[in-house]
Structure formats: C-alpha cells, structure tokens
Amino acid sequence: MPELPEVETIVRGLQANILGQRVKKFVFLSPHLEKKQLPDSFRPAAYERRRIIAIRRRGKMIIIKFDGQLGLLVHLKMTGQLFLADLGQRIDKHTHAYLTFYRLKKELRFRDIRKFGFLNCLALTQIEEKMNKDLGPEPFEIDLASFKLLLKTHGQKRLKNWLLDQKIIAGIGNIYSDEILFRARLNPFRLAGSLTEQEAARLRRSVRRVLSEAISLKGSSISDYVDASGEKGGFQKKHRVYDKEGQFCPSCCREKIIRKKINGRSTYFCPGCQP
C-alpha cells in the first residue's frame, strides 16, 4: 500500500502539472467506483468546467480541491495508481476513471488492479470533517511534547501497532514502521508507554528522517506504486530491514534480520540492534 512518502510524491507531481487546470470531462469507467460513493456524493459531471485550486495530502489520502467547494478524496489502498497519461494513450481494463482538461494534452487516470481503492466525489466540508474524525496528526507537524503524550495515552499498544494506527499518527504503514523502528533501535514489540524520554525523542527523529529521505527518493516501489508521471520510486534500495528476512543486519553485521507477525502484519527487525 502506498504510504506517506509515495502519496506525497504523487501530490507534488500533480501540483506541478494540473494545478489551475479546468476539467473538461470526468468519467467513471467501472461500476464498482459508483458503488463506493457515499450517499451524498456528487456525480462526476458536477466537476466538469471546475478549476483545480489545490492538491494536498492527508495521511495516505489525496485531496483534490475544485472551485465551487467540490473535492475528490482519493485513497489508493493496495494497488491504486493516480497518474498522468497522454491523450489517446490506450486505456487498459484496470483503469476505472479519468479526467481530461481544456488546456492540457494529458489526462489524469485512476488505475487499480485489485479494486480496493476509492475516489469519492464530496463537498470540501465533508472531506475536512472526515479527515478530522478519522486521522491523527501529521508526522511532520506534531511537536515533541504532543508526540510523547500520544505514546503515553496509547501506552498499551506495541510500537509497531502504535505507528500503524492512523488515528494516532497519520500516514505510516508496514514498510516505514519497520524502517523507522530499526533506525530508532527500538523493538517493535515494546509497549509505547515503556519508552524513556530519550527513546521517545529518538523515535520522533527517526519518523521524520526516514519519511523525509523516502520522499526525497520519490517513495518505495515494491510492486505497483508509480508516481504521477508513471515512474517508480527509489527508496526501496535504501531499505535496511523491510523484506530482508535472513540477511545480515546492515548495522551490526552479526545478527540476521528476522520476521515475526504482529496482529497479522509481517514485521522485520534485527534482534541485536533492537533488543
């Protein structure tokens, strides 16, 4: 599933290419997208002739704002892709929606092999209400005192689960939680409330550094992820523990990376560096 760095990379690509563009046509190609609309969703036709005035990320979601107080809320889930394609380029069977523009020779396509993702047509006020209700603070915006308070408030959660809980902190998934904990030298099975002041500060630094580095390399392409131009990311080459079971730890070089399940999620860590 695309996580914060991948979604942020897509958002930046879209901002550079379609911000300010006016929609010519918005088409759903698959019935399943219709079924995923909320009861008070707008029809795609409502977006035609509307101008894109802002594009931003919230957690793992993409919010596209249009004039007239309309918005698109996009979640890529496991295999979703949101990218620009040349007009006239063949549309394959996994492409479920597209938008064309009056002054751009490209179209925005939503593609999703497994059909878990969604693209909801909502009023901007509805989107903001949903984000405020469902998501915790952004990793780059939370200060140290608030970060420590969240560790204490949700102290009975294991660190891996604490990082994955979108209502605690938004945007981190399975890949980056493992990389963050490795660089912070913290065991994923530790309880969040057991961290010392120094460990809590170290974890927050690791969150920010790992996510920043991943964004600079345009995310991790493990399977389906591509950016807004259809290009793969490069941070997968920098992974130190994720999907490295049986390989020697790149830090201590004595222990091998092991994999264990936490609430059904594969978790990779070094038993030497993360005791």
Q: Mind sketching the topology for me?
A:
Blueprint: H1 4-18, E1 23-28, H2 31-35, E2 52-58, E3 61-66, E4 70-75, E5 80-86, E6 95-101, E7 106-112, E8 118-123, H3 124-134, H4 144-153, H5 159-164, H6 174-184, H7 197-216, E9 258-262, E10 265-269
Antiparallel strand pairs: 1-6, 2-3, 3-4, 4-8, 5-7, 6-7, 9-10
Helix pairs in contact: 1-7, 4-7, 6-7
Brief characterization of the structure:
Helix content is 28%, strand content 23%. By secondary structure, it is an alpha+beta fold. β6 and β7 (106-112) form a beta hairpin.
Helical amount among residues, as a percent range?
Answer: 25-40%
CATH domain class of the largest domain = Alpha Beta
Q: Are there runs of 5+ residues with pLDDT below 50, and where? A: none
**Whole-number average pLDDT?**
97
Question: Strand content of the residues, in percent?
Answer: 15-25%
Report the C-alpha radius of gyration, rounded: 20 Å
* Beta-strand segment tally: 10
The appropriate CATH architecture of the largest domain is Alpha-Beta Barrel
Question: What would CATH call the homologous superfamily of the largest domain?
Answer: MutM-like, N-terminal
Largest sheet: 4 strands, antiparallel
Euclidean distance between termini CA atoms: 28 Å
Strand order in the sheet with the most strands: 1-6-7-5
> What structural class do you assign from the helix and strand content?
alpha+beta
How many helical stretches? 7
How many individual domains?
2
- Reported by name, the CATH topology of the largest domain is N-terminal domain of MutM-like DNA repair proteins
| Order of H and E elements | HEHEEEEEEEHHHHHEE
Principal-axis shape equals: globular
Oligomer: single chain
